[in-house]
Amino acid sequence: MEHIITDPQCQTPDSFNAVERRILGFMKDERDMIFVRTAAKITATVLPAAAVLFALPTTWVFALAVPYLAFVFVGFGGRYGLMLHAVGHRSIFNKEHQWVEGYIPWVLGPFLGHTPTSFEAHHVFMHHAENNMLADASSTLRYQRDHFGHFLHYWGRFFIMGYAHFGRYMWLRRRYGVLAKFMAGELAWMAMVATLFFFVNWAATVVVFLIPMALMRWFMMAGNFAQHAFVDLEDADNPFRNSNCITNSVYNHRAYNDGYHVVHHISAGMHWSEMPGYYLEHMDEFMAQDAIVFDGVRDNQHVWFLLMTRNYGKLADCLVNFRGRTHEEKVSFLESRVKPTVGARRGFFEFETAEEVIATKRKKAA
To answer: For 220-223, which contacts have Cβ atoms below 8 Å and span 24 or more sequence positions?
Structure first.
């Protein structure tokens, strides 16, 4: 079948200014200059805006809170988050200059709702290592993935007990270096926030750091819930059958092809600009695997909203029809993929068994 793709593919900037040409000498791939530009824009806009809030009295801070947060999240929330994601999987600077990349998570991250080391540790060293299977603390397998109450449980378990579940996972896996780096970042963030809250400007600290952190963790968990909502009961460890793709979306232009989640789980280190090409080149396999590809939804948050409202009509309208299903058949197919794949949900304070965490081979969730 023909599927025309408008998402960005292997593009390089048309031109570079003098500073960028200098920076290119330290970079691995000129296609990643877009990350340098994004970091520069955040530095030139978000950081000064935050500084202004810290200089204002409490009344003015809260009066400006909504426009400030709207500016940060609408303008840069997705772009920063997926820049952090891309850099976590694939370094953009040469080996001797990789320390420069620390600016992205350590300096910019807290202003966009990210603690410095949590995303890489959680996403790269656990989520991708486990591929959404049971040992993954963010696994969706135990949940009814079109049920808002189940999502609240999923989010709450992560938000309240995420440190404990992740820390235990890393300890049992003997990944002490990752755990130490994660804790260093979390403790540094906590110390910074406590200092600013008690000694500088408590209201600005809430608006600039605490609210964005809470919002970002909601959005990230909603996104992951949507990305791994449609799981095949018989083949839950197969990226073609436990993830989905979003094609032809403005979101892919703003967030570096994040919609191609199946492709990302097949090859986590693939350059973001190559993902649409991979999809087109391997479309026969996507068809054979009956992969779920949506064309016409905005982003993962949109998929999540459609799931929470059980708007399967819209989801079916956007589903790429690899098998020639009728509309009703597409609805039934999507509904069949959101049922809990394994047993009952674990409680907030209930850990996965040690055997599940340290298993050397992921098991099918049949």
So the answer is: 220/81, 221/138, 221/151, 221/154, 221/155, 221/158, 221/159, 222/151, 222/155, 222/300, 222/301, 222/304, 223/300, 223/301, 223/304
